[in-house]
Design a protein that fits this description.
Blueprint (H helix, E strand, L loop, with lengths): L1 E7 L38 H13 L7 E2 L2 E4 L9 E4 L9 E6 L5 E13 L3 E7 L2 E5 L6 E7 L6 H18 L11 E7 L13 E6 L2 H20 L7 E6 L4 E7 L9 E2 L6 E2 L2 H9 L5 H12 L3 H8 L2 H14 L2 H19 L10 H12 L5 H12 L5 H8 L7 H14 L1 H9 L2 H18 L6 H13 L1
Parallel strand pairs: 11-12
Antiparallel strand pairs: 1-9, 1-10, 2-15, 3-4, 3-14, 5-6, 6-9, 7-8, 10-11, 12-13
Helix pairs in contact: 2-3, 5-6, 7-8, 7-9, 9-10, 12-14, 12-15, 13-14, 14-15
Length: 475
């Protein structure tokens, strides 16, 4: 498999006109005479789009085209007003690169980037606005896209999804796109072909067009692979074509025969000069790049002694990585901070469908909670109650501990008194414990700990209880 990702660039205006490119506007209110292909209208290149393309190329270590050229891609469709799309074909702005994708097992999976080129988006055909009619919305026409094309390096759906998630992380770190798949800011075309086991020759490929979620990409790959395999097993042939994925029916369906480059009659765009980049411009853009996910992941592993898995999850979002480092700066407990972010905090955000920058628990508030865990003011069980209070906006960790009476009991004298009462009131269990072997004693000790925790309303320090209890029962 090879993937083609169409990434909407986060510019304020379109690639060749001054029209805005915001999502969600009423149909046809964000299209000017250039976007509508009116006679005599000339495109003017958006400099910001060029900068964003270079940022991406530098982010994946790709060759940057010192000279790139725009071309006309000719085809006819109702939502393409000019009858052609301005794209890049012969000399793209970004050439070959290598993108290392972190996999769930901690390994890095190298994906060869073939090219990334700038182009304008087409409009949108709307099939459900009018009975028995199709409407045309040209708000998207001229929206700046970066099309990122890989070599056919993928062999499983898991690899493809991991790549898309890593790509999403990279472009949001770079600030060149919000990567919102549900709004069309990141759309994926999947090219699939099969080959017999042991053969190096790939068969006829199909393209699944405009898949707009990680889950749907995985499903589309699975059902299309199965469809092609069934055809070949039955002695039939695979037709080179473009297909769509129907999520409701979990199937792919034919859209049209697959075009090749000659069908589009590419030729250089006569209304735009070549884009020429000097070394100073490229170096200036390079200096402006933030710390990217790969280097940040390596630093988190070394600086904070985190596992590969935890570090990869924390750096998957720039906002989450910043939240983590802010919390660690306040409490100096990186492992505990990672556990709480990836555990209770993430679970709460998932329930409420919130992102890390929308959570009601600030990094400093979480650090306050973790400080009280680290100094034994809170047990892990009590800490969950305090976190609940933080989520509900009941104040700081210290405020909630005080208001709810949740301070962990670590006073030795107070705990010994509780232990003495439990031992006195349960002579049969004490006798069983003292007569048992070591393995059985470990099981029986749970009864006593449970009774003490009950007596303390869950506030006794469990580690200290275990130490004192073992000593008492051994006397």
């Amino acid at each position: 498999m090879g993937l083609e990702v169409h990434l909407q660039l986060a510019t304020d205006s379109k690639i060749f006109s001054g029209s805005p490119s915001r999502f969600g506007a009423e149909p046809n209110v964000q299209a000017d005479a250039v976007d509508l292909g009116m006679p005599g209208m000339l495109p003017v290149l958006n400099t910001r789009a060029v900068e964003f393309a270079v940022r991406f190329g530098l982010g994946v270590g790709a060759k940057i085209g010192r000279r790139s050229v725009f071309d006309r891609k000719n085809y006819f469709y109702p939502d393409l007003p000019k009858g052609y799309q301005i794209s890049q074909f012969f000399e793209p702005i970004v050439g070959e690169g290598l993108f290392e994708v972190p996999m769930p097992d901690g390994s890095l999976f190298p994906i060869r980037i073939l090219r990334a080129h700038l182009e304008e988006d087409a409009g949108k055909s709307v099939h459900d606005a009018f009975p028995d009619q199709t409407g045309i919305d040209l708000n998207r026409a001229g929206t700046p896209l970066l099309e990122i094309v890989t070599e056919p390096d993928f062999r499983t759906a898991e690899q493809a999804v991991a790549y898309l998630k890593a790509l999403h992380s990279l472009v949001t770190y770079l600030g060149i796109s919000d990567g919102n798949m549900s709004e069309g800011s990141m759309r994926c075309d999947v090219n699939i072909s099969l080959r017999p086991v042991g053969s190096d020759t790939l068969g006829t490929r199909t393209e699944i067009k405009n898949v707009n979620s990680f889950r749907f990409v995985e499903k589309a790959i699975e059902v299309e692979t199965e469809r092609q395999a069934d055809l070949l097993d039955n002695g039939e042939t695979v037709t080179q074509e473009t297909r769509l994925y129907d999520a409701d029916r979990n199937e792919t369906r034919s859209m049209r025969s697959k075009e090749v480059a000659n069908d589009y009659r590419y030729f250089p765009e006569p209304d735009l000069l070549p884009v020429v980049l000097d070394e100073a411009t490229i170096e200036s853009i390079a200096q402006s790049l933030p710390e990217l996910p790969g280097p940040k992941r390596a630093r988190f592993i070394e600086q904070y002694t985190l596992s590969d898995y935890d570090a990869a999850l924390l750096v998957s979002s720039r906002a989450m990585a910043d939240y983590f480092e802010s919390a660690v700066a306040d409490c100096d407990e990186p492992k505990l901070v990672a556990n709480w972010i990836l555990g209770d905090l993430s679970a709460a955000m998932n329930r409420e469908d919130l992102d890390i920058d929308q959570t009601p628990v600030s990094a400093s508030a979480l650090a306050g909670l973790i400080t009280r865990i680290a100094d034994n003011t809170l047990s892990s069980k009590l800490a969950k109650q305090v976190f609940e209070g933080l989520w509900l906006g009941e104040g700081s960790a210290d405020d909630i501990i005080e208001a709810r009476g949740l301070k962990q009991v670590s006073d030795t004298g107070e705990l010994e008194a509780m232990i003495d009462d439990v031992i006195t009131n349960n002579p049969d269990q004490v006798a069983q414990y003292q007569a048992a072997d070591e393995a059985k004693q470990k099981k029986l000790s749970g009864f006593f700990v449970g009774q003490i925790m009950k007596a303390s309303k869950g506030q006794a320090n469990p580690q200290l209880v275990s130490q004192l209890l073992m000593k008492k029962l051994s006397d």
